[in-house]
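for the writeup, i need someone to sanity check this before i put it in the appendix. the sequnce is what the collaborator sent (i think, or maybe the updated version? ugh). structure was predicted straight from it, no edits. if anything looks off just tell me and ill rerun, i have time this weekend
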Amino acid sequence: MKEEVLENVGLNNDSMFLDMTFGAGGHTKSVLDKFPGSKVYCLDRDPVAYQLACDLETEYPARVVPLLGKFSDLPVLLKSHGAKQNYFDAILFDFGCSSMQFDEGGRGFSISKEGPLDMRMDGNRLPQNPTAADVLATAEEHDLYKIFKVYGEEKKAKKIARAVVEARYLFTPLQTTKELADLISCVLVNESRTDKLDRHAHVATKIFQALRIFVNNELNEINYGILLAQRYLRIGGRLITICFHSLEDLIVKRHITGNMTDNSINVLPLQYVDNGLWHDQESIKEFTSSYWQPLHKHVLLPSDYEVETNPRSRSAKLRAAVRVS
């Protein structure tokens, strides 16, 4: 959704822009080209993406600052570059995996490409972090059930968790993407699923999503990343987010509406708060206040043309908001 990002980012030729999910650099390049003189800080936890950002730095001298790390690493990384609070004019998040991560079988993200069950967005940069194979080999059945149910929203989570545990004790721990996909296909042998374009969808899709989110601690990182965006954006700066599933979008939506407690999102929407409780005016103001003003009443969706040319964009939801306090 490059065009939608450029339309809502609110930059000019002297702007400071922070791309929190650099990936292959598509959004960053479009900003650099449209706003000559702007400067872009490029964050990514993937060493491959970081190297691409370093290469881009030579193409756009003094306009690109590559940063290697997670969202939660940002304060330390920015401090080393002299960037302080209220520094940026716009911040972009394009959540989820990048296409290059899906396309490389050795990363373990894709069902269609055989490779080791890795799924670490950091790659081997942090070798002590567990892989998806480690999780499947060591987690208790109930923990696997919770991972599949909460992060994958998988209706058959209990049945699949039981099969994973049985497989590792009766046969061998799952090591490859094909082994996991084949196991789930056997468990859900009579299942038939489709995606949003009514195309056939593999029955293991939600399990792969759940493992990826858990291995990379994605939801906590997203929550913290939005908090950091509020800190580093100037008043009037723009926040742009692109989400690909409901768990990501829920976090963003709760932040923008101010439905937060102790810097974490509330599970229930504001309309389901207990009306039988009495609160003073100051408390009510605190509960309903937000640092953000949405630019659009509803989320922006990709055009039919973009979905046709790039089917991976079919689930994308773009939200744009202005920091107001």
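The longest strand covers residues 233-243. The two ends are 27 Å apart (CA to CA).
thx in advance!!
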